[in-house]
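Data card: per-record layout.
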Amino acid sequence: MTVHAPVTDLPIVLDQVSYAVAGVTILEQISLSLEAGQPTVLVGPNGAGKTTLLRLCMGLIRPSAGRIAFGGRRDAPSERRAIVFQRPVMLRRSAVGNLRYALAAAGVPRPAQRDRANALLTLVGLADRAERPARKLSGGEQQRLALARALAKDPQVLLLDEPTASLDPAATKAVEDLIRDIAGRGIKIVMATHDLGEARRLAGEIVLMHRGRVMETSDTATFFGAPKTEAGARFVAGDLLV
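The structure for this 242-residue chain is written out next.
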């Protein structure tokens, strides 16, 4: 009997990847390997290319040059990846209705959807909001519901684009706690943030981006304690990268 290794999307390897739109280069010659393990956090000024990099890793857009491999495969389908954007759109349904829709889209059999939806709502701390219209939830609650919807497809990789932007401190803590819980379940988190404090709290690895390029990749302790590059040292010190 032949035993096949389980299909994996990890590592995600970008090899000299560039991305341009209408002649404007957004990412330039990115080489990066996103491995299983602790969260990888992308930091850098606005316009550095963090969101574009996440969209490439999700497969929503294709590189203009270079190649991306997912677990050694090119053009891999995105069934094992999910993405949550900074301002997720809530369907005009209840919180549990949003989850049932996501579960149906993920191919979960209808008889199993209720139990799975309830389990996800409990995971993200929204069990008591199940029947509330999703669009009437607070910003932090909507972000946690968006995370639950992403988890409906049982992803191996979860891509997050500034998930706590514009949230108050209490809502930020709730989302960060949830991200730690998700990472602890073996799901690879790749996350963009503009908040260095958040990066320090959540990251195992830091990727500093500026003007569409990767300037430094370091473990968190090294990046904040002894950056390898001048750009890293300036960014940690709070200086503007121009």
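Known properties of this structure: The first helix runs from residue 50 to 58. The domain at 12-237 is CATH 3.40.50.300 (Rossmann fold).

See the next section for split statistics.
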